[in-house]
UniProtKB/TrEMBL annotation:
Keywords from the UniProt entry: Amino-acid biosynthesis, Aromatic amino acid biosynthesis, Lyase, Phenylalanine biosynthesis
Residues in coiled coil: none
Cited PANTHER family: PREPHENATE DEHYDRATASE P PROTEIN, PREPHENATE DEHYDRATASE-RELATED
Pfam families in alphabetical order: PDT (PF00800)
Superkingdom of the source species: Bacteria
Entry-linked InterPro entries: ACT-like_dom_sf, ACT_dom, Chor_mutase/pphenate_deHydtase, Preph_deHydtase, Preph_deHydtase_CS
Species, as recorded: Rhodoblastus sphagnicola
Pathway assigned to this chain's UniProt record: Amino-acid biosynthesis; L-phenylalanine biosynthesis; phenylpyruvate from prephenate: step 1/1
Official protein name in the record: prephenate dehydratase
Enzyme Commission number, as recorded: 4.2.1.51
BP GO terms, sorted: L-phenylalanine biosynthetic process
Site (Essential for prephenate dehydratase activity): 173
Amino acid sequence: MSNKIIAYQGEPGANSHMACADVYPGWETLPCASFEDALAAIGEGRAELGMIPIENSLAGRVADIHHFLPGSGLHIIGEYFLPIHFDLLGVKGAKIEDLRSVYSHIHALGQCRKIIRKYNLKAVTTGDTAGSAREVAEWGDKSRASLAPQMAAEIYGLDVLARLVEDEAHNTTRFVILSREPHRPPVGAGPTLTTFVFRVRNVPAALYKALGAFATNTINMTKLESYMVNGEFAATQFLVDVEGHPEDENLARALEELQFFSEEVRILGAYLAHPFRQRD
């Protein structure tokens, strides 16, 4: 079994790579072409853990993960919040006045509109922020730039033409840390989150009654996302984050009540809340 290896989606220098380095310094990182590949690497034992983005403060949820995660058989054992910063990168010797086009992931382009408009650049979508930096380095064209994290500049030997060019300073991505085995913290170890999925029965007021269990048991629900499953408009699955440990008396009671109104309730993980949540 692999040891001290953490998988992520993207190329070296991507934000997911940075998150791995922040949380698990010294671990070997395993870049994967897709989320499915990253989840498979963990499930098959080629990586011990995975660092997967689940939502962004500007772009919203990472939709693919909501579909892949429940069926992956993996467990959430932690979370991490990474402030997202982008630099404008060019080949060695390039100047901003030389630029005609800029390449990056669609979310990065959307989060750096001001600098794109300021220099009248043609925005070109690529599959990955760090991948765009690699391509710009390979092309060697001073008229082409990349929007990518600073780590990408270091890896691919690019010049930083402008730093911190994101439109909003509060841009943050939440990552979940995945493992083949559950690793729940002990009850009382600190502020804890529990993530689970459920599907309500297709009857009137089922969702209202299901959520009522959390209200009556004074459980704070921090996330509620719905999405269709199996292509059925009537089959809606919900992904939920709540504060508390599954073994806490009030949360255990709420989850038990939820069973009465649901076809399926499955806990994906219980883990300590990241300190980012305690900010004023």
